Amino acid sequence: MTTPLLHEAEYYEIINDELHIVQCHLCPHECELMIGDKGKCLSRMNISGKLYSLTYGYAEMKIDLIEKQYVYHFYPNARVQTFSTYNCNIDCDYCPSPEKANIESEKISGKRFAPDQAVMFGMASGTKAICFGEAEPLVSFEWVRDTAKLAKERGMKVLVRTNGFFNEAPILELLDYIDAITVNIKATSEESYLALCKGGSFEHVKRIVKIIHEKEKLLELTILIHEDLNNTEENALELASWMASELGPEVPLHLARLKPSHRTKHLQPTSKELLERAYVSAKDKGLQFVYIDDVLDHEANHTYCPKCGELLIQRNSTMTEVRRISLQGHCNKCQTKLNIVIS
Ligand code: SF4
Q1: Is there an atom of ligand 1 within 6 Å of 29 CB?
Q2: Residue boundaries of the structural domains of the chain
Q3: In this model, does residue 317 exceed pLDDT 90?
């Protein structure tokens, strides 16, 4: 058990001077907190009338293939220094690591990294980028922002994997320091967000996704589908339609497979048939890049040229091979410009 080191939070205001009540503006929950209260995310607490981040710098570190973070169009096959943070602002039935996504800060056993330490590890390991991944990195917003800023200053690329359920102002600030972002879309209706994740909002996340896209960051979306959850083929189709009309057909969509966990331990993994039907439907909506994830060696793991159909990037269980893309990101066969960053 550790005593968390405190870091004053940003994006909050004192809403009652007399009672020292503060309101956090980091995410749409807008928690109002009396002295001693923690927010829904357990990562922010009112101490003596100020809001503090309890998880600033706490993370587990490892080196991953970039594809493990559902990022297929940004330096394929690169190694990234991944920092997995603690806690989340929603609670999904299929959360792969609920013990890390909902933990009191006193029980965190991971190391605490100052931003320059985290960047130093990334540079020393020779990885291409720093990646902020699970549980939900943006509940540790100040640390992610400080580390990302320093990483950019020192020439590293920065990736973030998020649920997108955060307010516009902090997202806009963060976008100045990141290169690529994967947003996990949890559901395609307000009711389903509540049923599956006890919070969140499709409408809000769509707005945030559009902001990210307008800032021209490399953006990829994922949606987990399953026969017995609220997310099936129709929901993937709905998301694909929205992406094609509001973002453009070049934004990649990943169809993720359920790995039974947390409150879905009684279910089977998503069937291959459902994933394949959703894949065809999403392509029919005009999306150029649709992927089936978490099914080993499936042909829908690969990237094909949307114009001539050439196999451009081949992925299997052990490696990713970039085959026919120029360094400028064009198909070597038909010269089509691709939404893929190679160098
Ligand atoms: S970030 Fe945490 S404390 Fe802030 S509003 Fe969201 S859930 Fe509440």
Answers
A1: yes
A2: 7-53, 58-300, 302-343
A3: no
At residue 2, does pLDDT exceed 70? no
3-state helix, strand, coil in the chain (%, to 5): 30, 25, 45
Q: pTM higher than 0.90 for the full model?
A: yes
Q: For ligand 1, what atom is nearest to the CA of residue 23?
A: 5
The CATH class, in words, for 58-300 is alpha beta
Atom of ligand 1 nearest to the CA of 9: 4
**How would you classify the pairing of strands 218-225 and 180-185?**
parallel
pLDDT of residue 251: 98
165 alpha carbon to ligand 1 midpoint, in Å?
10
CB atoms within 10 A of CB 2: 12
Q: Kindly state the helix (H) or strand (E) to which residue 240 belongs, with its residue range.
A: helix 233-242
Q: Is 27 in the pocket of ligand 1 (CB under 6 A)?
A: yes
Mean pLDDT check: name the lowest of 48-62, 135-149, 315-329: 315-329
The burial of 19, by beta-carbon neighbours within 10 Å (0-12 exposed, 13-18 middle, 19 or more buried), is given as exposed
Q: What is the pLDDT of residue 92?
A: 96
Read off the pLDDT of residues 100-145 as tens digits, 9 standing for 90 and up. 999 998 899 879 999 999 999 999 999 989 999 989 999 999 999 9
Q: Is the CB of 42 under 6 A from ligand 1?
A: no
Residue 161 near residue 132, CB atoms below 8 Å: yes
Rg (CA), the chain: 20
* Distance between CA atoms of residues 156 and 122, nearest Å: 8
75-107 pLDDT, tens digit per residue, is 999 999 999 999 999 999 999 999 999 999 889
Probe ligand 1: pick from 10, 22, 27, max atoms within 8 Å of CB?
A: 27
Q: ∠ CA 250-223-157 to the nearest 5 degrees? A: 60
